[in-house]
Amino acid sequence: MSVGVRKTIDETAETVKAHSTADPVAWLFPGLGSRFVGMGADIIGKSPAADKLITLAAQKLGYDIHEVCFSGSGRKFVPPRIEAQVIYVINCAYVDVLRSLGRQPQFVCGHSLGSWAAAYAAGAIDFESGLEMVTAVEDLLEQRIPDGEQAMGVIIGLDEETVTRICADEQYVYLANSNSPKQFVIAGRAVGVDAALEKAGEQAAKKTQRIAGSRAMHTPLLADVNRELQTALARITIDDPTIPQMNCDTASPMHTAVDVRRYLGQFLQRPVRWEATMHALGDLSITQFVEVGAAAVLTGMMPFIDPSAKIETVSDLLARDETANAIDPTTPVLTDR
């Protein structure tokens, strides 16, 4: 960690301590992998704040958000473009429900796709601009990346040094996500990713598996897509965040519109250093975390990163919030995941 980043974290931590009357909390926003049939069932049709946002999204997108969220079972397949849009919409809907109940975090942080909802929660972008950018990213990925050329894979049970060495042994294969101790995502050219996964298995990894999809997210292979995204970003307004958003590459807080714009314009080709970012939030005096999304993806990682951290899903928080007058507890909740 650079001296400048360390100083920023120390100064921000002192500010949090000085202005917090309750235990400081960070909202965490999941990305791909957090969609399932029944997502958002605890707020859709039960919170005016959520319904208002979802109605706006449906008008902009031209399809029924309810149909995507509730029709079918399990993790039914939907096109990547729709999956990304719906995850963003539901994440933001939870933000609006929490805001309607007077809740506010000290920091926000998004994992990959979750960065857009985090920017919305931070006050850096408006909802429609975020939806436009999520759609632009998916359109660029679909247009620029041939099917089958790129891939991603997960490796569990090896240390970061070993995974990094395995990636270095293959051409155009990179460490994309450092999620938690001994849980990593690699990405790159499909042939190289398959070879790296095989080598990881030979070195006694507990699990190696290809991830569905054909995009080498968070690697230099997306540099061209990233440049076009920067052009798209120039069309939208980005404000200074009212709540600091974490940069998951440098594991440091962002306080200005310039910082947020730079991050959003680069993160597709930069690694997600999730474990380091969670530790940085701990250094910033954060003692509680809420996963603001439909699933419990990030919640499941946290005990491996910091067993002492307090974390809950937004659904659990809303279920126990006695002030949640916007939620009608008598309405049945879908539970089919």
Structure, described:
- The protein has 337 residues and is α/β, with parallel strands linked by helices.
- The chain has 2 domains: 3-145 and 219-320, 3-Layer(aba) Sandwich (Malonyl-Coenzyme A Acyl Carrier Protein, domain 2), CATH 3.40.366.10; 150-211, 2-Layer Sandwich (Alpha-Beta Plaits).
- 45% of the residues lie in helices and 15% in strands.
- It has 13 helices and 10 strands.
- It has helices at 3-19, 48-61, 65-70, 80-100, 114-122, 127-144, 160-168, 190-202, 223-233, 257-264, 274-283, 297-305, 314-320, and strands at residues 25-29, 107-110, 150-156, 173-180, 183-189, 207-211, 245-247, 252-254, 288-291, 310-313.
- The strands form 3 sheets. It has a 4-stranded parallel sheet, sandwiched between helices. The protein has a 4-stranded antiparallel sheet with strand order 4-5-3-6. The protein has a two-stranded antiparallel ribbon with strand order 7-8.
- α2 (48-61) runs antiparallel to α4 (80-100), α4 packs parallel to α5 and α5 (114-122) runs antiparallel to α6 (127-144).
- The model is unreliable at 15-21 and 328-337 (pLDDT under 50).
CATH architecture classification name of the largest domain: 3-Layer(aba) Sandwich
Q: Which blocks of ≥5 consecutive residues have pLDDT under 50? A: 15-21, 328-337
Give the distance, in angstroms, between the N- and C-terminal Cα atoms: 40 Å
What gyration radius follows from the Cα positions, in whole Å? 19 Å
Q: Report mean pLDDT, rounded to a whole number.
A: 89
Shape: globular
CATH homologous group name of the largest domain? Malonyl-Coenzyme A Acyl Carrier Protein, domain 2
User: Given the helix and strand composition, which structural class is it?
Assistant: alpha/beta
What helical percentage do the residues reach?
40-55%
CATH class of the largest domain: Alpha Beta
Strand order of the largest sheet: 2-1-9-10
What name does CATH use for the topology of the largest domain? Malonyl-Coenzyme A Acyl Carrier Protein, domain 2
| Largest sheet report | 4 strands, parallel
- SS elements, strand count: 10
H and E order: HEHHHEHHEHEEHEHEEHHEHEH
Count of DSSP-assigned helices: 13
Number of structural domains: 2
Assess the beta-strand content as a share of residues.
5-15%
Family: Belongs to the fabD family.
Organism: Symmachiella macrocystis
Catalytic activity: holo-[ACP] + malonyl-CoA = malonyl-[ACP] + CoA
Domain Malonyl-CoA:ACP transacylase (MAT): 28-322
